[in-house]
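Severity: low
Component: inverse-folding endpoint
Summary: output formatting inconsistent between runs
Steps to reproduce: submit the following structure tokens with default settings.
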């Protein structure tokens, strides 16, 4: 190689995944071993010039793989693509030939060099793994996986926790515990077993005030009389986002921290809020305290900052969805409390229920409202008036707080979705028995339900009815499958994307409708068939594994594809926010990196394969 070309080769390697993950020394060594060749249109690589050679990387130009048997086109590759890996272990005759369509500059990594890099470097090894889901999983480095980001290591819980906790035994008096909290300037006392030193309970300042002092208890009573025994804790080595996730989802202000099974200290909202990216804890606390809609509206703008920081800090998409969903839940619950203070207590037991993405805890910035009301019994006219006022107020207020009204009017403010438990049961029975297009549309919106406020048992019983009834009618699952698989991932022949044109004639694919939703719908069908009571997409798929509907590898494929797609989606939304553009789910693949496009193809192939499997399993119920 002309040594003057080495800087160009080194730069190309440094910007091409997975070789960008090599150390500087490895890149230097690799660059010196690369062979450079130039090809003109109609040049051909075949047999000995392709088999057992190594990996070919296209610096510039276009090539096509052609089947030797019938001359059909296998694939087309262009700048940034690689080919030849499937022929590395061949000798002599190749499976296909490679034809050059344009003037092309190739970088060739010799077989021995490639084998060495695959063995020694994890990123390279995973990238060339035969399994698509392994390749996709190697594409991210989320902080939930215990790794840092490009700006530095993410803090662990140990980095931010209080390590001088108030420790008491179960026999310590309430009075002495209060004194110790004052000395330690702590909000949390941890009750430990004297012999083992293990955590057996916790008590907060609020517990002492509300459970003891306010009720006139003898403060010489042991602290065990008011302590909370079922205690959540977190390991010191976990990162701060794990603590955030646990505290937000369980509405906890103080969380014990353990190291090697022993008490290290505790993490609180105070120490978390020293990290500006963890404002979700504070926001939920302030929303819960709000007594008017104007206050909620003023707080709602913080949602965007929280989302931006979570994406910026490479937090796992599923965690982002759960945090944003919990924030949405807290807003809705606060609005319902304000509504009841305005209109009075409900005249009959009821549940305010979310549907759609919020029910699955998959809220993101383009999620609109899907909700309904289930009442314990049929309503008289006076009761209907009350609930209509309440529903209108809640839906309007949610819209004002950044949760848009549903275009399809699948909301509690629509009297059709404000009805008794028995009516809801009948709705499900009718949808499942009478599988018209309208029935399926309505059913699909409300197949995912979760109680936000009120009598949650109504929702639990309704979901049990849905699961039992749906499993008695195989035709229903077959039609759900048929509708779900009508939309295919936008992957055409020759590894190209099938694109649509928008109003400005720009090409795009809709990552929600053409990819994300397809996995959600598959998981829903598997969840119903597996009789899973969970609405979580991952948990539904895992339940399907448990009962043998799908294999563990199937779960891994769908999970990694779903994670990757949401990661691409959220980064696209973040970039739109930064540039002041309207948010959408429409992606132009040409604006993605070659690395992202390659893994997008992997994700689409996974979806395509599992849609076929779904049709095979459930599609014969017509």
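Observed output (run 2 of 3):
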């Amino acid at each position: 190689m002309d040594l003057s070309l080495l800087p160009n080769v080194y730069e190309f390697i440094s910007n091409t995944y997975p070789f960008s993950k090599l150390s500087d020394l490895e890149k230097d060594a690799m660059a010196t071993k690369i062979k450079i060749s130039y090809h003109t249109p109609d040049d051909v690589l075949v047999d000995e010039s392709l088999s057992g050679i190594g990996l070919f990387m296209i610096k510039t130009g276009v090539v096509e793989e052609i089947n030797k048997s019938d001359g059909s086109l296998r694939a087309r590759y262009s700048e940034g693509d690689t080919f030849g890996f499937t022929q590395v272990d061949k000798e002599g005759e190749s499976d296909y030939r490679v034809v050059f369509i344009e003037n092309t500059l190739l970088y060739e990594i010799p077989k021995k060099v490639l084998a060495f890099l695959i063995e020694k470097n994890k990123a390279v090894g995973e990238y060339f793994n035969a399994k698509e889901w392994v390749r996709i999983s190697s594409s991210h480095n989320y902080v939930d996986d215990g790794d840092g980001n490009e700006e530095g290591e993410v803090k662990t819980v140990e980095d931010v926790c209080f390590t001088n906790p108030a420790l008491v035994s179960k026999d310590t008096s309430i009075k002495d515990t209060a004194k110790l909290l004052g000395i330690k300037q702590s909000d949390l006392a941890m009750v430990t077993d004297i012999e083992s030193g293990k955590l057996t309970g916790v008590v907060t300042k609020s517990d002492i005030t509300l459970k003891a002092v306010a009720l006139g208890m003898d403060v010489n009573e042991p602290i065990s009389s008011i302590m909370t025994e079922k205690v959540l804790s977190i390991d010191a080595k976990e990162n701060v986002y794990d603590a955030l996730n646990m505290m937000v989802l369980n509405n906890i202000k103080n969380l014990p921290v353990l190291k090697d099974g022993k008490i290290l200290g505790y993490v609180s909202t105070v120490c978390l809020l020293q990290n500006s990216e963890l404002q979700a804890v504070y926001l939920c606390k302030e929303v819960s305290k709000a007594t008017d809609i104007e206050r909620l509206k003023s707080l709602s703008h913080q949602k965007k900052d929280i989302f931006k920081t979570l994406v910026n800090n490479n937090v796992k998409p599923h965690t982002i969805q759960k945090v944003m969903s919990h924030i949405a839940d807290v807003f809705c619950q606060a609005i319902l409390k304000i509504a009841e203070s305005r209109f009075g207590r409900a005249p009959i037991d009821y549940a305010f229920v979310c549907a759609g993405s919020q029910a699955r805890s998959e809220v993101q910035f383009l999620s609109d409202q899907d909700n309904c009301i289930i009442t314990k019994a049929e309503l008289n006219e006076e009761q209907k008036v009350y609930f209509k006022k309440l529903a209108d107020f809640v839906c309007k207020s949610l819209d004002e707080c950044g949760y848009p009204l549903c275009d399809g009017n699948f909301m509690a403010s629509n009297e059709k979705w404000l009805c008794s438990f028995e009516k809801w049961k009948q709705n499900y029975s009718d949808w499942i028995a009478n599988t018209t297009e309208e029935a399926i549309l309505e059913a699909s919106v409300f197949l995912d339900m979760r109680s936000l406020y009120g009598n949650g048992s109504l929702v639990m019983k309704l979901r049990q009815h849905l699961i039992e009834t749906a499993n008695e009618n195989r035709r229903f699952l077959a039609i759900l499958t048929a509708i779900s698989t009508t939309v295919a991932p936008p992957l055409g022949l020759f590894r190209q994307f099938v694109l649509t044109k928008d109003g400005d004639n720009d090409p795009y694919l809709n990552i929600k409708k053409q990819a994300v939703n397809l996995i959600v719908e598959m998981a829903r069908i598997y969840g119903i068939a597996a009789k899973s009571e969970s609405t979580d997409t991952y948990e539904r798929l895992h339940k399907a594994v448990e009962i043998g509907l799908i294999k563990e590898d199937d779960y891994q494929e769908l999970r990694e594809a779903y994670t990757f797609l949401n990661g691409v989606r959220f980064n696209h939304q973040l970039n739109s926010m930064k540039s002041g553009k309207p948010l959408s789910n429409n992606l132009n693949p040409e604006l993605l990196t070659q690395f992202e496009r390659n893994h997008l193809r992997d994700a689409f192939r996974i979806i395509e394969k599992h849609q076929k499997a779904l049709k095979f399993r459930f599609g014969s119920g017509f």
